[in-house]
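Input record (one chain):
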Amino acid sequence: MKHFILILCLFSLLFKIHAQDEKSPSPILFIYDASGSMWGKIGDKTKKEIASEVLFSTVNELPNQQHVGLIAYGHRQKGDCKDVEFLVDINNQSKANINTAIKDINPLGKTPLAYSAAQAIAKLKQSKTKATIILITDGIESCDGNICDVVANAKSEGIDFKLHIVGFGLKEGETEQLKCAAQAGEGNYYDASDASGLAEGLSEATSQTIDTNQGNVSIYTTKNGEPVDAWIKAKKAGTNDVIDGSRTYRDSAWIYLPPGKYDIDIVPLENSKIKGTSITLDIKKDEIKHETISFDGGKINIITLNNNEGWDCTSTVKSQDGKAVGHSRTYGRPQVVEVNPGTYDIEIVALRMNGLETKYTIEDVLVESGKTIDATHNFKTGIAKLGVQENGKLVDVVVNIYSLDKTIFIAGGRSYTTSSSNPREFILNPGKYAVKLRGRKQGTDTIKWFEITVVEKEAFTKMFEW
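The corresponding structure, as predicted from the sequence alone:
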């Protein structure tokens, strides 16, 4: 008997654990905009068509055990600020029910955002259910309500919910109250200008539910003092193991990181030509952190000279790990390259000159946010005009210039027999060179070697006797 009771207890324990594992997530309740403005078009489709397709696609990606409800506003009467209806109850687990309800919606009326939120919250309060509310709207409040106040008051009453808001095709300046409401609802505001943006916003919102660990790291990104939309990706320090991620949508993005050390990549999606940046954070238990990341790059004013005069050069700006982060060509004029704050090496290659000193690296250039630093290099050259003649007549041969030990090719060309190319001009770094002449003399291949010396800022002409 004792053996039987022990087996029964173990079975009950396993059943309980299994039941906990199968516990359904808290409901998601969508509030759908069915106001008359949803007949407006983005591209070839109405906003209603886009929103319907994206919403059902989003719902279809949810777990099978996910309870999902639907509220619509503005779909029955034109001027009614109370036109809010529960189309699908939050106990629903059928994705098809959501799809059917969406298809039957006929956008018609006003945009009672505050009243819609109040009705959704009242339902949760009545049923004592915690849930994630996701509001989709293409317009601002049109019934004199204040959704931010509604949400804040509900939170102060202890009603357990998270509110995300997806603004669909809203204009700049229309989002302040919506952002306030999302923040009060411990959720996010997502800005969507098209179908792709709406899908991204809904996907992010449905992944950040009331059941998700509350964020303990917030990141806000700016450029020239204005908020910037950016991707956030946190990885275990020194690895590629992604722990959490988010998107700022020009607001603070929250991620949750257990205690430990993390590398966080932040990549701007707008308003900047520069690449993203990374920070490393050490998170301790029960710690909440906030980071403001500025994409205000510093600037490097690259100045390339030859004998103190502007000279055409290419340049490559490299970070300390050797990655190229910027390129330019000066064309003889200063060129500005914008990069993230940091320390860089600048590799400069001079054009239209030859020698052993046509490349130079300016090392350890410190760039500070919002500041411009000059990076200057002055090459040195002289001019050698080399020609070939025989008994006073110009001779066509190949003229090649080598290092003095004849191991490194420097420059070359043909002399031909015209005064425009014989003598031929070479711009060379100062120093001594070996000159190799190769041609035919009296029907025989002939090679002759000479030596020249090039002096800084000086030009000379040398006619070799063939």
